[in-house]
């Protein structure tokens, strides 16, 4: 794209936007949002200025009031919320208006023409019974714009977002993938060429790779169309790569705001610092990642004094009584923080990723001999026994329904969700399946624990074929297999029966495994297990219903229920993605501890390399990278992260948020296509060749095999592993790098 | 296209099944209609040797032929729209049905459409004004209407408006003596006669439609795309039609066509009460007169209409709601 060259925002751009501090586009003064006649604040006392053409990243946990802030900027707070204060908007021509004083008609024109918004769920932002194109047209028409010119602009926007304009405009929303819908929604929000784009978690439901790709595209759009972007998210590292300035919202108030580098590298608020430390990322030493204890307050019982004091490790008597002012911090241009003890915070809460660079190198220097070797000996000694689960050339193909006539005239359309995978899971093993959505990782996971029947190949549990056991053809009862292999779902809420108390939910599996124990003993066991998973007082929790628990607590109950079955393996399907960032590490730690205690294996499905890394590295397990139904690389977390062999692994590594300021700034995505190809008709040869940054002609014809690495643990499926392969002599594909070596270190 | 093909192939199959069922009923049930008919004929003094011939004429079945032959004959008869002769009215069944069916269809379609339109409007207003006085009153009435069977209204109307006040006729579809023509007089007469049955039948269904619409409407109003449409500045009228109404009504559409089929059965009682000469009226008189050929004919026609209603519902739903497309493939 033509715009790529001038979009590399980096130091120059940043300083530029800092200099224009005296050209604010939005000035928000004493703004509040209240409910129940002013008793409950869901946004309190906001005084913030937003500069023209800046990207402001706003980070907060769910239920912190961050979405309220987004709605307030468009005077669109959901009923019966009451918005008060002043929000001045400075037009390009110098005139100023107070958004809250506008008449309905003025507001109708103002929204979308001047300030536009992108919502969280693209799926739910389009009218499901109307074509995407009609959304654009009706928007242009209501705002009295020339429709054909406007559609021309819409096509340009869509193209800049790596979409095929005609196809997208002519589709119904459900015909597009989530990532496509989200990008179409961004185009829709920009179709009237607004000045400001407010984005509320615009990528939350997407894969990491898609999120990062969209962020890069946003970066391009921002400079091409001179946008001011307000990007609201719970994901601190994600927005850090895009933002010029960042703000942290905690419990309905701004806790800190400042230039991005200040917030990331020199934050003056304990919450920000702990948030940074609790974020799983690839660089920080594992032992330094710490969860923040407790959870954010509800609007009805906001703590007195500093709202963070119940969770703050530095809290004093003063914090409990006095509300800290949101005042400037010395040293940073425009850096403000609401804390009494900023200096102490900086001293007492060291940032863990600060040390990254050196630690990294040390590790690399000291490890190469024992790291990979340790890994390979481990695999060697375990392979001598029968593995817990053994997959041999497993295939899961979903056929699509066809009519009589089609059956004769067309080839059957088959989705190859899993295509020829062989993998052994040992006792007490830990394997993370990593990949984008649609790569088959969930199907493979379900196949591994016998919930999905493979259409080819076999899956054995301790040497017995699971599906033979189900048919009753083996000497091992199927019931035993079934209870040995358990699952924890992504959304614990839907997996727990809402009408039953936690005690009842947990009794069920106990009846199964220990039919002969009495009531009292059952209760004792549940009690101690709940305490073990960190839910105290257990007696109290046992009496509750699922809706009375937070997301993290529900996930703990789901885990406890799985453990009560005495399983040999637990499949955790994206089990922590529904949990707030600051609590994720806590849950992962718990799983890891319990793995050792309960002698189980864990299969962990994720699209997030840093979560997979945390898990695999702590639990001494492997990460298997999947792409379109195949495993393309497998190995220890350390090797995969520091020495990825498959180009796809490198792409995933690129997509993983990073808190290292030097490496943070935007680069274009190292893939040639943003969207995953249709699994009905996967590309020929190497399936990754349509997107691979270093693909060559040879990759189009031949399919690489998953081969053991000579100089590292694990295996990878790419021709680049074989120095004598014809690959090296063939021409690079369209758009692929001429010199593949250039990709290696970026 | 396979979606439509599959549905289309299903139609003749279903009709075949229904015809087979009627045949089975007539021929095979011991002491069933067939035997009854024989006894009846003999009792009427038809000479025993003629009984078989008469049965054949009435039911186009030859009782002495082998079973498969009888079955085939019957099916061929049905295919040629020859449903035998009515005993009580002494006319071909198909003729009677052809005369009765339009009236019934008129009743059912008009009342169902009215019911749907009124119900949807009330429900939509309720959804927009959720929690208001109107909403509460309307919900209460809807529940009341759902609880009272429609024939209670029919009887009440008939008693007060026709017998007491003499405002409406108490039977027939048109004034005696008015010829079927395109004249205003004829149309007025038709409306005058059909008014009470239609109103009674409409009221009975409005409640559930309104409640249904209210629920769907409230749900759609809470959807993010409605909020986004408002922020995009779309006029309220467009949001109400293209966004709220369309998405709220679509799920009710299949139900509507099914309802038409279902309500066809309901006319049996309704037409009886108003002495309205539709299918249901003839069905009841056929039962009273032990007129099996006519009974079976009515039964066959009602079932076939139901099947076709379901078919149209299925077909058009795919066209109307883009989310249900032929061979939808997002299933994994
Ligand atoms: S004011 Fe006190 S409690 Fe609040 S963040 Fe600062 S140190 Fe912690
Ligand atoms: S085989 Fe070719 S296309 Fe496939 S990953 Fe390797 S370089 Fe890329």
UniProtKB/TrEMBL annotation, chain A:
Residue ranges of the region described as Disordered: 1-21, 363-383, 726-746
Localization terms from the record: Cell membrane
GO molecular function, one term: ATP binding
Swiss-Prot/TrEMBL keywords: ATP-binding, Cell inner membrane, Cell membrane, Membrane, Nucleotide-binding, Translocase, Transport
ABC transporter domain segment(s): 28-276, 389-653
Gene Ontology annotations of biological process type: peptide transport
Protein name: Peptide/nickel transport system ATP-binding protein
UniProtKB/TrEMBL annotation, chain B:
Keywords: Membrane, Transmembrane, Transmembrane helix, Transport
CC per GO annotation: plasma membrane
Membrane topology (UniProt): Multi-pass membrane protein
Span of domain ABC transmembrane type-1: 101-317
Localization in the cell: Cell membrane; Membrane
Superkingdom field: Archaea
Gene Ontology biological-process annotations: transmembrane transport
Transmembrane segments: 12-29, 100-122, 143-166, 186-206, 248-274, 294-313
Primary location recorded for the protein, binned into one broad class: membrane
The keyword Cell inner membrane is annotated on this UniProt entry: no
PROSITE patterns on file: ABC_TM1
Family statement drawn from the similarity comment of this UniProt entry: Belongs to the binding-protein-dependent transport system permease family.
Name of this chain's protein: ABC-type dipeptide/oligopeptide/nickel transport system, permease component
Organism: Halogranum salarium B-1
